[in-house]
Amino acid sequence: MSNPQQRKQQMSVLDRLQRYLPQLVIAPPFLLLVFFVYGFIAWTGIISLTNSRMLPTFDVQGIQQYVRLLAMDRWNVAFDNLLIFGSLYILFSITIGCVLAVLLDQRIRAEGALRTIYLYPMAISFIVTGTAWKWILNPSLGIESYMQKLGWESFQFDWIVNRDMAIYVVVLAAVWQASGFVMALFLSALRTVDEDIIRAAHLDGASTTRIYFGIILPSLRPVFLSAFVILAHLSIKSFDLVVALTNGGPGYSSTLPANFMYEMAFRRNQIGLGAASAMMMLATVAAIIVPYLYSELRAKRHG
Amino acid sequence: MATISIEHASKSFGSTDVLKDISLDVKDGEFLVLLGASGCGKSTLLNIIAGLEPIADGIIRLDGEVVNDVHPKNRDIAMVFQSYALYPNMTVERNIAFGLEMRKISKAERKATVREVASTLQIEHLLSRKPSQLSGGQRQRVAMGRALVRRPKIFLFDEPLSNLDAKLRGEMRTEIKKLHQTLKATMVYVTHDQIEAMTLADRIAIMKDGEIQQIGTPQEIYSKPANMYVAGFVGAPPMNFVDVDLVKREEQLGVILPAVLRGKPVDYFLPLPNSEQLHARENTKIILGLRPEMITHNAFTQTVNPEIACDVELLEPTGADTLCLIRLANHPAKARISPLFACTPGESMTFTIDMARVCLFDAESEELIG
Ligand SMILES: Nc1ncnc2c1ncn2[C@@H]1O[C@H](COP(=O)(O)OP(=O)(O)OP(=O)(O)O)[C@@H](O)[C@H]1O
Ligand SMILES: [Mg+2]
């Protein structure tokens, strides 16, 4: 007599399993994520409030590490460098990527090949980029010596060994690497633009430049925003490029906060100070990402 | 004055020939409709007139002047695009004013003109919105406004109503017709909707695979289609095509029409009234084109038209008329009768054939022969 009922119960167990299966599958990675990412963020936060040196200690002292950090010339140079590097890197990558995309959008021949050539740098690791540019820019090996050998004796291009200019060398290499990626991003967006819009604008009497700058690019605002957020967080994370290209030098004139953090935490036994600098970087990233996520989520809810 | 004259224009994209030796004349103030199936090159032809696509061969004249190398903006042409192509980042007002802005017209004047156009199209309340906040019909009006505001001498419309629902389409059709009457501008209008073509056009050009099949008034196209493609394309339900033999009986040239009566095949002899030019074709196969309304019930007791009796397989009432599915030369054909005369399906009934209006086509070339 209980046969149908039993079956019903079995069914409901299966049903329930089916309903909770996604949660069950998602749970372990989720827990790992919470532990290793957010757990360690919290841990770093606590360490930054202690005076840990070689080994972490847990007696919270207050914000003295931050006070020390902000008074250090090395940190201030690194943070100023981040501002210079970040703004120039984002500005030039987007401008160059955008212009390349517009040019490639003119349905020229060999477009596929050109696109691959421009995109390729993104596939190279920062270490390789850094090393290659280090050789190219080295005064006694690269462009400078080459031009001098060609007979232009007074030619000088020694930014990489110049205190004031070294950070711009990092910008140069990073822009070289990222522009192709930005171009691909813009090109794919340009390709979704209705060709009739361009035709209509031609009939209305707009020049090609006017069409791109007055109509098409403004309608690609979301792409600009994505490019900005991607490049901004890449620039804050930048570490390996500096290591390979200038190793922070000359002196510490071209260090970035990530290099500073590594130097303090793992080389100079200043874990507390390193943690404080890491928290500063986290705050910088958050200042960019949080408004972006907020606007995205809000747009989705309203859209 | 605004005439368009295209002489032997051709265009290809890579190896596909999209337009083949097109010649076309549009008179001043004329409403010409380009009608054809999807992909036959209608939009391409419009783009060529507007100067948005270069042509490989041929000459385009506007008002008699060759404009092959004249930039689109200097041709004084406005176009409403198939997708409307509104500028997504601009408000409706700027969308409409953009053409004037590019022509360096003062801000005050721009504003006044836009207001005026907006009030004709009844879109004044939308002026501050972005295109993404408009419905399809509203977008269509804005696209019209953008074309109207420049007061060009030539308008090109690329299927402007194809994205609208049936009711709105009917309304906009009337408005476009009114607009043509008040503006008296030359208009070229692309569509694949034959009702639109018939109701709007002064003349229709039927296109197929990049070639113009026939140009004529709607009435000419309907009653004297140049070939079987045109005959089949225009008219709903389409013309019935029947393979028949052309024979002479008692000194009268006519065709043998095979039908079915009470399940058995019967042949009817239908004399052709105007058959002078057909004598050479005696005893050959030709194709008889019968529009459904040419096969109808016999409303009069006396008629000059021949009668046929045949089985009715199915009835399709459409309200005003009823369509009867019959079988001619082993192919289904449709007859159009008044619902009052409709029999029940499966019965047989007598139809008269309006022989004065039938079309005859060559079996090989499919061209009209009489
Ligand atoms: N830029 C292009 N490159 C290659 N082929 C094209 C291009 N534009 C159009 N074609 C081809 O040309 C032919 C005609 O296109 P066109 O857009 O003129 O058709 P249409 O008659 O307007 O069709 P529809 O009614 O669907 O709008 C099509 O076969 C199309 O595939
Ligand atoms: Mg088209």
CATH class of chain A: Mainly Alpha
Q: What is the number of E strands of chain B?
A: 21
Structural class of chain A: mainly alpha
Note the overall shape of chain A: flat
Low-confidence stretches of chain B: none
Low-confidence stretches of chain A: none
CATH superfamily of chain A: MetI-like
**Percent helix of chain A:** over 70%
The CATH C-level class name of the largest domain in chain B = Alpha Beta
Mean pLDDT of chain B: 91
CATH architecture identity of chain A:
Orthogonal Bundle
Question: CATH topology of chain A, which one?
Answer: MetI-like fold
In this structure, how is the largest beta sheet of chain A organized? none
The N- and C-terminal alpha carbons of chain A lie at a distance of: 54 Å
Radius of gyration of chain A (CA) equals 26 Å
Membrane topology (chain A): Multi-pass membrane protein
Organism (chain A): Pseudovibrio ascidiaceicola
Protein name (chain A): Glucose/mannose transport system permease protein
Domain ABC transmembrane type-1 (chain A): 79-294
Keywords:
A: 303 residues, 13 helices, B: 370 residues, alpha+beta, OB fold (Dihydrolipoamide Acetyltransferase, E2P), 6-stranded mixed β-sheet, 5-stranded antiparallel β-sheet, 21 strands, 23% helix, elongated, binds adenosine-5'-triphosphate, cell membrane (chain A), transport (chain A)
